[in-house]
Write a structure and sequence with these properties.
Blueprint lengths: L2 H7 L8 H16 L8 H5 L2 H27 L4 H33 L13 H5 L3 H8 L12 H19 L5 H22 L10 H16 L1 H10 L2 H19 L6 H20 L14 H6 L2 H21 L7 H32 L6
Helix pairs in contact: 2-4, 2-15, 4-8, 4-10, 4-13, 5-8, 5-16, 7-8, 9-10, 9-13, 10-11, 10-13, 12-13, 15-16
């Protein structure tokens, strides 16, 4: 490999299409939480919001693995302290802001809006929330917190646990050993889900989801270690095959969405989806592929705010559920249901954009000191 090829290979990549895929994953979760009753078919569409979270895990597995391996390839080492600092700046500010919002929500609803908090779910355990252990609180209780947005923050806890485990593993283990780590992670994920299913334990921890991250790590590993061979192989896959695969994946996702509960079928379905999500990501990787969604596409633009979208949407939906009866509206009617969806989505996007530019971006700018 000549010097120019080495220089190209060592440049950190921006992956087009990923932001748009993030938005699709968020939208799947968003549909799940909409209290729409006017359309019977909507229950079919809204089911399976957890699959959107599974896609986030696969995508995180790719990006985190790529970032770490790219740094090792470029510099010969991996700065673990800087890696954790960048993750903290990205996740912690909005995470702890949302905990503050959840803490104030009961006071606002009861004292300002004169509405009682939901009796469904458990009272927040602030220590568990602050220490990124909300997922284990949900597993222990077999329930969910009764204050938004704590109910969706279990996945952020798993993400945080993944950053710690994967960062430490890839810091101490040479790149050539990563395939062994990936295989072990896949086995751990499958066996853990199988064990949990037997005892009726919710699959809400890193052990039952580590294989999803590992599936995402596969294309990242191939891209770093065999970039040109990997990209050329992916480019040789006919465009129509990629479109057909995407259509099949959409059907599989919708079929799997109808399956609820953590049982033995869930064990296998999760693995199938993880593999298919990793393949979909792989198809978008080559620089000059036709199989892409450009950065200027509105879906890609919205994908930039996915973190905020994921957290704010439950707050907006909860607030709308309180205000709708006061305004004389109902989601039982087609007009009221459609209006609810539009308002919830637009308000969520608006809050997320304001949050990103006013609150999150100042912290993100500090990441340049840890590169």
């Amino acid at each position: 490999m000549n010097s120019s090829e080495t220089s190209i290979q060592q440049q950190r990549r921006h992956f087009h299409t990923f932001d748009a895929l993030r938005f699709f994953a968020f939208f799947k979760v968003f549909l799940l939480h909409l209290p729409i009753t006017a359309f019977p078919w909507f229950n079919y569409m809204r089911a399976g919001g957890g699959i959107g979270v599974q896609f986030f895990f696969v995508l995180s597995g790719f990006l985190i693995t790529y970032i770490i391996l790219e740094e090792k390839s470029r510099t010969g080492q991996f700065n673990l302290r800087h890696f954790f600092a960048r993750r903290i700046l990205r996740i912690w500010p909005l995470y702890y802001l949302m905990i503050l919002v959840a803490f104030l929500t009961p006071w606002v609803t009861e004292q300002v809006l004169n509405v009682s908090t939901s009796p469904v779910g458990y009272e927040p355990d602030w220590w568990m929330s602050l220490l990124f252990l909300e997922n284990y609180k949900m597993m222990i209780t077999g329930s969910h917190p009764n204050v938004s947005p704590l109910g969706v923050m279990w996945s952020l806890c798993i993400e945080e646990h993944f950053y710690i485990i994967w960062g430490l593993l890839l810091y101490f283990i040479p790149v050539r050993k990563l395939p062994v780590v990936i295989v072990c992670s896949v086995l751990i994920g499958y066996i853990s889900r199988y064990f949990y299913a037997g005892y009726g334990i919710p699959a809400l921890d890193i052990f039952t989801n580590i294989d999803l991250f590992a599936f995402g790590a596969v294309p990242a590993y191939l891209l770093i270690t065999r970039r040109f061979a990997t990209e050329n192989a992916l480019l040789r896959v006919p465009f129509w095959v990629k479109l057909l695969f995407t259509a099949i994946l959409i059907i599989v996702v919708q079929v799997c969405s109808q399956h609820t509960g953590n049982d033995y079928a869930f064990v296998t379905l999760t693995m199938v989806l993880g593999v298919m999500f990793a393949i979909l990501l792989s198809f978008t990787i080559p620089r000059h592929t036709r199989f892409r969604i450009g950065d200027k596409n509105i879906l890609s633009s919205l994908g930039l705010y996915t973190y905020g979208l994921y957290l704010y949407h439950t707050i907006i939906i909860t607030l709308l559920r309180v205000l709708y009866p006061v305004l004389g509206l109902s989601t039982d009617t087609p007009g009221g249901a459609i209006l609810f969806i539009i308002i919830a989505l637009l308000a969520t996007i608006g809050c997320s954009m304001v949050s990103y530019y006013i609150f999150e971006r100042p912290f993100l700018k500090l990441k340049k000191w840890f590169r």
